[in-house]
Design goal:
This protein has eleven helices and ten strands. It has 333 residues and is of the alpha/beta class. A six-stranded mixed sheet has the order 5-4-3-6-8-7, with helices on one face. Helix 3 packs across helix 11, helix 7 crosses helix 10 and helix 9 crosses helix 10. The radius of gyration is 22 Å and the shape is elongated. The protein starts with 10 loop residues before the first strand and ends with a helix.
Length: 333
């Protein structure tokens, strides 16, 4: 693992400390991430559109603008559309108004923030109410006269599509899981049809595999996606993602990690932080030296994985990683 000092491009001062204001990504390639099951899923979704009344796009509220697949709008945009920004329990709620304003400028008016972890979440109840309203206000074409409603749920990997579906069933049918939930991208790999989520009105939906945009134009956007777990960690490396997290937290003066990890002060050196964490957690590994002896060293990968899990569980503070995009909109008003 290389020292983070090679990634310092510029620095800003905070309480006498120097922190990076830029992050160098080296030669890591994140641009292409479109496995074959994603391409098949998109074709299947398009073939089913004539039977669909409304499309629910689920995305992570911590990255409301980064990574949303433009193919959804192009291929599925003929149907009423509801954007569900999930995992609101992990986001900085003070950014909600700015997020709505920017999305409105992009032509996206129907937006709901949801938290699927609450057993009786009003936000999940609102999904059905909004969907029924959108359908009743639109032309149903081949579905004219049908008494039931058919929905399609789409989104990039690991943003909580299955959690939203299961929460709707739990809320409206008092039933358990209809689709698997996982903390890594790629759990749903095929289209799953005819999942009932409500009796009054009678609503069925189609769960689809997470479909990432075929091309990620900006590396920093790819790092945000990786940090939220929508890309598989091993494609980038736990240490690189953990270093980006450290850079982002320091840059935005979110120093909760210092007290949580038991550190004396913030640090911008990922090697120092991972060494500190590995020792604190008792995570070590043996490395074989050139002379054949085994040397005990800190397990940096285990420390980086722990740090990422803490962030993804919301234990390092509530964030919106697209903060700059929200602020740019607010400053232009």
């Amino acid at each position: 693992m290389s020292s983070s000092s090679s990634r310092i491009v510029g620095s800003i001062s905070y309480a006498g400390r120097l922190f990076r204001e830029s992050f160098t990504f080296g030669h890591k390639e994140l641009a292409h991430w479109f496995p074959s099951h994603m391409a098949r899923g998109m074709k299947k979704m398009q073939s089913m559109l004539r039977k669909i009344d409304c499309v629910i796009e689920v995305h992570d509220s911590r990255i409301p603008f980064t990574g949303r697949n433009p193919m959804f709008k192009g291929a599925l945009g003929v149907k009423p559309h509801l954007l569900v920004l999930n995992k609101m329990d992990l986001m900085d709620s003070t950014k909600r108004k700015d997020i709505r304003n920017r999305l409105s400028d992009e032509g996206i008016q129907n937006v709901i923030f949801t938290n699927c972890n609450k057993q009786e979440s009003k936000t999940i109840r609102d999904v059905v109410k909004h969907v029924v309203g959108l359908i009743n206000e639109s032309e149903r074409y081949q579905r004219t006269g049908a008494e039931d409603y058919n929905l399609m749920v789409c989104g990039i990997p690991n943003v909580g599509k299955s959690s939203v579906i299961n929460a709707m069933r739990r809320m409206h049918l008092r039933k358990g899981k209809a689709t698997r939930v996982g903390g890594v991208p790629g759990v749903t790999r095929g289209v799953i049809s005819n999942i009932q989520v409500s009796n009054q009105p009678r609503i069925y939906l189609v769960d689809t595999p997470g479909i990432m945009t075929p091309f990620i134009p900006q590396i920093e956007g790819g790092m945000k996606l990786a940090l939220c777990g929508t890309l598989q960690d091993h494609h980038i490396g736990h240490d690189i993602i953990a270093d980006y997290l450290l850079y982002w937290l320091n840059k935005h003066s979110q120093f909760e990690y210092v007290e949580i990890f038991g550190m004396e002060q913030p640090s911008d050196d990922i090697m120092y932080v991972l060494t500190f964490l590995a020792k604190r957690l008792g995570k070590t590994q043996y490395i074989k030296a050139l002379d054949g002896t085994r040397e005990k060293r800190p397990n940096y990968d285990a420390a980086a994985s722990y740090k990422l899990k803490m962030f993804r569980d919301g234990k390092l503070g509530k964030v919106v990683l697209d903060t700059e995009l929200c602020e740019n909109k607010a400053e232009s008003d």
